[in-house]
Amino acid sequence: MVRKIVLAAAAGLLLVAGAAGSSAFADPTPPPDPATIPVPTFDFDADPAKALVARVRFDSRTQAHVESTRVTTSRARGHSGEPPILRLRLTDVDGNEIDRINAWSPLWRLDGGPNGSKAVRSSGTGNFIVPFSPALAAMTVTDVRLNQQIVTVDLAAPIRAFCAGNPADPDCRESDLAVTAVEPSAPLFGVLGQPIQVTVASAVANNGPDGPSDARVRREVSAGPGLTIADGAPVTTDVPVALGTPQRLTRTYTVTCTQPGTVNLTATTRVTPKLPSVVDAQPANDVRSATLGVTCAVPATINIKPGSAENVVNLNNGVLPVGVLTTTAGEYGNPVAIDATTIDWSTLRLGSPSRILAGVGAREKHGRIHPENVEEMDEHRRDQDTDAMLHFDPKTDGLAVGDTSACVYGRLRVAGAMVAFYGCDRVSVRP
């Protein structure tokens, strides 16, 4: 079987030059004279049934734009003798090179004659034709002598359009890819300035009829003012999805509260076929979003057993006194001023950090707060603020022997709104 030179031994490229301008541009080192290149013969039987045709307009030797692209099922006329004037680089959806092919330039014109006289034009239009492949995504056209990229042709779009109209073609597949779940989760609350981890679990499925199919899954998160996401750039992952076997993907984001209150975080997952030859006839289920309210608590200063230096907690000694201090912004390092007398006693919980984050803890024993001037953390002074004295039974789902921290979580009023607060103090828990 004879070799097809325009395919660089395998690719089947043809170039058909169209109408062009008449003025030539100066080139001190012109491309090789095509008359010196042997005219190849073509093996028409080896051509595939389909081809990709890109019509490209050259406005100059270094500037061009794509006029149209399409898939054809009939072989276009070829132009014999493809010298290395242009080079076509064919790549897949990942940017990996599939082939490189020499090509004729539409700026070159053969005038016939005994030696095939030539002329170079300032502009012209030509068709670049390559064989159809489901793996193709792009074609880059480069001037060989100048070693300069001229134009990149999107081949995925015409393949996608062809397969959408011809889903039964043997080179095309049909897979209804769908996002079936987006599930964000976060701790019970975050404290201003202290990062927390938010996890988003997504699931994608292939509803057929063809499978498996490679899916391209894009996951992204966004949040309103009051919440920053350290690693929130969109992430794209390629996964094979078989029929009846959904793929589950999980990603964790580092999130930090910057203002008190509840701030919404929205997670969005999109799925598309990785290959343009895979048709997804149901695009409505290709994207799904879910919103999670993240509770942002203000840090508070608490004093376990005011007046005690050791904070020994005996679980069998009944009520444990805990003071929540009224503080100004910056006092004890707290970024937000709080008035402890605005605490809603019904929201209060006392417990170890793990119990508080689990949503449990001891409740306020007396069913109220006691406004008073609580002794400060240095155990020696009282300021002029009115604080809140609270009372808890620590053995009631609050603390256990071995705990070294006791924390209070609840809600109070800040700038006219009820927001969460959280504060901890060291303890020594005994039976």
Automatic annotation (TrEMBL):
Superkingdom of origin: Bacteria
One biological process term in Gene Ontology: carbohydrate metabolic process
Keywords, sorted A to Z: Signal
Signal peptide residue numbers: 1-26
InterPro entries linked: Ig-like_fold
Protein name: DUF11 domain-containing protein
Organism (species): Asanoa ferruginea
